[in-house]
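Ticket #4471: structure output looks truncated?

Reporter: J.K.
Steps to reproduce: submitted the chain below (435 residues) through the standard prediction queue, then opened the result file.
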Amino acid sequence: MRRPLLLIFYFLMVVWSIAVWCETGFSFQSIGIGKSAAILLTGTIGIVLFILSILELVSYLIFLPIAGGSIRALSQVHGESLLIPLTASILFLALASNILTGSIYGWGLWTLLFITLSAIIFLALNFSRDSVGKSSEANVPTPETSLIAQLMGLILGAEIVTVSAGATPISPWRVDKLPQDTWVVDVRTKAEFQWNRLDGADNFPWGIGLYDAALAHSKSQPVLVTCLSGHRSPAVAVMLRKMGFEQVYNLHWGLIYYMILNRGKKQSGTFRLTRSSRDTSGRGKDYKAISVGYVMTQVIILALAPIEKWSTGTQVSGLQKWIGGTIGLSGFVAAYMAYRVLGRNFRVFAAPRRSGTLATRGIYSKVRHPMYTAVICAFLGYVIYWGSKWSFIFWLAMTALYVIKAWKEESVLEQRYAGYNDYRKRTWKFIPYIY
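Returned output as attached by the reporter:
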């Protein structure tokens, strides 16, 4: 029933767009402080949800081609459920637009959109409660999650894959409550698996080979699916649940949190870490404060630029839009070129992969940090396109954070690669022949 309702929602969204365009031409009325605050709140929520849901969908599309014989079952639950956060983001953005335009037709159609999404969420929550109830009847651990927490998790996309499919998210501190004969499925790469793992785990990178291996296991045997951060394992938990396994658990927040909780502790049995004394906090210097800082500035830039234009009525010339679009597009091109060169060496940590190599070809033969250059250019183009003075201040802050991060990373790379000093002498940090 949820799938037809999703189709109805997106059909109504098209009707809403046409109605608002015909009534107002998407021209915006003058607004006060109260409405500006409401627009900022709803618009920011909508943009953040939209970005998160797109990232989740991209992860799903990457996993789908290697799902093997379970691809049909996986798509029926995983793909459909991931549309709920995206749908919620669109509803928030439509609300912000209604406040800006004051469209009467827009408000009427938005009410129908809200009712449709509420029905979808109601059905999803009922399905997840039924699944948890069955687990409780089987006398196995179930998550103690309130209705409000389930609702927020559903809208934000957290746990939605496993819960909607009838699998059970389990917190790291509750793993030891599972039976010792639990089949532990680790879907990380082989290098990650060798680094640290649960003692009784079997390794199936990204789920490859798991479909055939699962056929040899009893469907009544409990299964715990793990990965590093809890983002790769949900899709595999869905696959096992759809194959008929009665008790499937997904390690919520992943092994990294489990390692931190059990660091230095004496463990035994299936859920013992092979390296319980390893300092997981030393897995590369992530510079958390810097990372949080530039992510926050990026979210603010994305939300603030259009809001400033709409609230102040700033007029942007066609030439300025063309310049901004060109700079932004150049950023995406540079990011693609850098990603092509990096391949499997790409990662968000400052420290390089243990099996990685120093990238010196392609765009890296001229620039040492082209990914950062790409992001800086993309956001600069966005700011110029909207003509936003407020966002430009946050863009400067974001750029400064990337410069600091690049400076810190180079000390890490210098220690890791013997030839990095020579490479640094013949290349530029961000822009060839400039900086």
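Triage note (M.O.): checked the attachment and the full token line is present. The mean pLDDT is 78.
Status: closed, working as intended.
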